[in-house]
Design a protein that fits this description.
The chain is an alpha+beta fold and 73 residues long. It has 1 helix and 5 strands. The protein is globular.
């Protein structure tokens, strides 16, 4: 099963974190850096990046897997 990566606030900085893990994958000083880190991991694992706001609310999602466009159905 492919795990998504979340960009979350972490002790005044930003972290890229694999879904389901307690520990962060990597810490960055800016959200932009954390998004790039999570994006690289998601591309390698064909998964999704979920970007959170400082209050924890989901801001955006980007899929890097086999996502058919237009969707079937």
């Amino acid at each position: 099963m492919k795990k998504n990566y979340h960009v979350v606030p972490h002790n005044g900085e930003w972290a890229a974190k694999e879904e389901g893990n307690q520990r962060v994958t990597q810490i960055a000083s800016t959200q932009r850096e954390a998004i790039q880190i999570a994006r690289e991991h998601a591309i390698n694992n064909q998964s999704e990046v979920v970007i959170h706001r400082p209050n924890g609310q989901i801001r955006d999602r980007n899929s890097y897997g086999n996502d058919p466009y237009p969707p079937r159905g």
